[in-house]
User: What shape does this take?
Amino acid sequence: SARQLLDHAALRAQQDLAGAPLELARMRTVLGEAYHNIGDPRLAQVLLSQAVEGLLEPSLDRRVEAAQVMASLSQEQTAAGNGVEGLRTAREGLALLPARGHPLARAQLYSASGLARINLQQFAQAETELHKALALVAGLEPPLAAALGLEVGDRLSMVYWRWGKLVQAEAQLRALIGQVSGNDRTRLLELSIRLGRVLREQGRSEEAWPLLQNGLGQAEQLYGRRSRHVLELHDALADLHMDSGRWDLALAHFQQRLTLGAQVEGPDSLGVAMAQFNLALLEQQRGNHARAGELLQQSWQSRVAVLGADVPMSWRAAVGLAQWHLAQGQV
Assistant: This one.
């Protein structure tokens, strides 16, 4: 399988390139991005972090190259739910660049910064960062401009979706889907998943259903069950079933998401914490209040442990937990 080949390549790189630090750092970058593509964020972060450290060693001092890798690392950190770390890494990458030049690296870092700000619910700032990235993309050579333009455009759709501008988000996604090559199955899948979620939030469940259900089969076929794409689809399908009152089906998707999330992201990860919070809301509706309280407590503790208490993601969990206590008469 692709995962087995990557695991073998990572082991051989560590052994065979130990005396060639630049080649080792570059191989770790390639491997980190490959693990990203198959949906393994933990190994992607480890390898990309090691690549950055290697490139910034005084004997190499490859600052621009390190900055580009930091754009990828920032995206992995944000995708794992840690927008604070993602934004910090993107800013540090921008600080490594000279005052002029290097539009590709700068665009990648603005794109990563925009993604982190979406996670932090700083939507106006995210939109500004992404438009900075698009302005730089316009000056790149066509192949690079097309690929990076799609990525940044996708993130703009995320801004509009999370900001509640659902009509703009849908229009952006449909335009992007029309631009994607049929060979780019990963990008098409990601855009289709997001379109399904946007349609669901507009109350258009019948249109959302085939996109999400078919997407789950495609994701499992392309990446296997241990993939961030599969995790996202279990989340989305659980939400769709909850909307329709199909609680048993929603519960099955949440349970699969938690089980797979513990394997892919780690049991104490922010992704698992968010899934615990969503499952708690379902358990409250099903009348399982004790179980809901346990899940809310776990979700809040995990968020605080990773992010601290003073960020929106932790506040949301704290409010949910406080509401649960009030509902139990525990003032």
